[in-house]
Design goal:
Layout: H1 8-19, E1 22-24, E2 35-41, H2 53-67, E3 72-81, E4 91-100, E5 104-114, H3 115-119, E6 126-138, H4 161-164, H5 171-178, E7 182-186, E8 204-211, H6 219-229, H7 236-242, E9 251-262, E10 272-282, E11 285-294, E12 299-311
Antiparallel strand pairs: 1-2, 2-4, 3-6, 3-9, 4-5, 5-6, 7-8, 8-10, 9-12, 10-11, 11-12
Helix pairs in contact: 2-6
Keywords: Hydrolase
Domain Acyl-CoA thioesterase-like C-terminal: 166-309
Protein name: Acyl-CoA thioesterase-2
């Protein structure tokens, strides 16, 4: 992805390139008897110098999906974020096949980088930055029911991130306004610059999201794009409940774990409504529960994320 480009089509196409991994023929040092494939991917530059967690998660979805039997789509995944990634070095994804049953397949993937890439020590050793387990299922008929999307204004009526952050001279604001490959539009007032106006009383956050420009990609990559996009806003319901914003001095946040259940598969070019709540924050951790609905109001995915969230006292 070219960080200097502001062309939406080029930025969105760069996301597809980022998630479409290169196969590696030689098994890595973590290979087991169950290892079935190894892939490699690059990173997109980010403010702050670390790899965006949604990127690693989306790439891991691609890696496990490449090894699933034909006709089986991902229906759930669980990821642990173990260490920050270094965007200056490629990421290796080693996939193990844990089970191939009559209808379901289970895969595990470890995302690694050289240890010295992140901390300058342990040359020659590997640093695992993400561990994911994912399950795949054949398309089958069965019992059906679902919750429906809440009422929300059309995304075309809402300001873009660039509109909200216009005139803000800050590297993060510039990146969010011009470089993010996902178009995010807040139904609930954005908290980029200031806390929620309701002072912690807003329990539900809603955002619309889709690719910044339409992309042509295989269905697996649309699943990976959903994983990528789902990691942008889960901290915001926690911040709202606590009367904080992204600009709160001393704020430190990091994703611990992230899970997704795909109920239906979507085209990431179409608008998706991401409805999020934070039922709990304790012990320096915050939990967010999210539901993703398509434009027709159907529930297409459920997301949970737990993150470390701390505010360093000023002084």
């Amino acid at each position: 992805m070219t960080p200097s480009s502001t062309d939406p089509a080029q930025i969105a196409a760069g996301l597809v390139d980022l998630l479409d991994l290169r196969p590696v023929q030689t098994p890595g040092p973590l290979a087991t008897p169950a290892t079935v494939a190894v892939f490699e991917g690059d990173s997109s530059p980010q403010p702050g110098g670390h790899v965006f967690g949604g990127q690693v998660m989306g790439q891991a979805v691609t890696a496990v999906g490449r090894t699933a039997p034909e006709g089986r789509r991902i229906h759930s995944m669980y990821s642990y974020f173990l260490a920050p990634g270094d965007p200056a070095h490629p990421i290796t994804f080693q996939v193990d096949a844990l089970r191939d049953g009559g209808s379901f397949s289970v895969r595990r993937v470890l995302a690694t980088q050289p240890a010295d890439a992140a901390d300058g020590e342990g040359a020659g050793e590997l640093r695992t930055i993400l561990a994911m387990t994912a399950s795949f299922q054949e398309v089958q008929d069965g019992l059906e029911h679902q919750e429906r999307a809440p009422e929300a204004p059309d995304p075309e009526e809402l300001p873009t991130t660039a509109d909200v952050l216009a005139g803000i001279d800050h590297p993060v604001a510039h990146y969010w306004s011009t470089q993010r490959p996902i178009d995010i539009r807040h139904v609930t007032d954005p908290i980029y610059l200031r806390p929620d106006a309701n002072g912690g009383a807003t329990e539900t956050q809603m955002v619309w999201m889709r690719t910044l420009s339409p992309v042509k990609a295989e269905p697996l990559l649309h699943d990976a794009i959903l994983a990528f996009a789902s990691d942008y806003t889960p901290f915001e319901p926690i911040l709202r409940r606590q009367g904080l914003s992204w600009m709160t001095p001393g704020l430190r946040m990091a994703t611990i774990d992230h899970a997704i259940w795909w109920h239906k598969h979507v085209d990431a070019n179409d608008w998706l409504l991401y409805v999020q709540r934070s039922p709990s924050a304790s012990g320096g951790r915050g939990l967010t529960h999210g539901q993703v609905f398509d434009r027709a109001g159907d529930l297409v995915a459920t997301v949970t994320q737990e993150g470390m969230i701390r505010v360093k006292p000023r002084g």
